[in-house]
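name: query_chain
kind: protein
chains: 1
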Amino acid sequence: MNKNEFLNELERSLASLPAEERREIINDFQEHFQAGAENGKTEAQLCEELGDPKSCAAQYLAEQRPVRPEAATPPVQNANVQRPPVRPAQPAAKQGYYGTRPLPAADRRSDTAWSVAFILLVLAAFVVYPTACAFMLAPLPIIFLSSMIMQAAPGALGIVFTVSICTAFFTAGLLMLVLMSVLLKKSYKKSSF
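structure:
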C-alpha cells in the first residue's frame, strides 16, 4: 500500500465526520508521511507502521461518539496498530495559530522576550537612525569650517586633526546604522510576529 491508497481509504472511512474535521485528520497523516520521508522511510514502511486505515479511522470515529454512562468501558485497541500523533514530531516553527500544537513554555517566553526587544528596538530606531545619519553627515560642516580656518592659519596638524575627526564621526554613524539594522533583523526573526 502506498501513501495515496492509504489516505484515500482513510478518507472513505472517515466519511461520517464533518468535512473540515476530516480534512484536518488527513492533513495530519500527510504531515506524518512527509516527516517520515524526511527521516528516510518509504511510504510502504510508514503505511505498515500506521496499520490499517480503517482501524485508524475507527479510533477517530470512536472519539466522536458520545459516551453513554452504561457504556463507559474503553474500546479494545489492537496492540499492533500505532496511531500517529495528532501533529507528527516536527520543530514547532512559527506556523500560525490555526491547527498547530502550542509551543513549550520556554519557547513562548523566548518569543515574548524577542517580541518585546523588537518593539523596543523599533522605538530606539526613531532616535538611532537620524543620529547615525547626522554623524555620517557631520564631516561636511567640519570640512567646510576647517577649510575656512586653514586659510587663516594653514598647517599639517590642522589637516590631520580634521581628517581624524571626520573619519571618527563617519565611522561612528555607519557603525550605529549597521548595528541597529542587524539587531532589528535578528529580533524580528526570533520574535513571534
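note: The chain has two domains: 3-64, 105-190.
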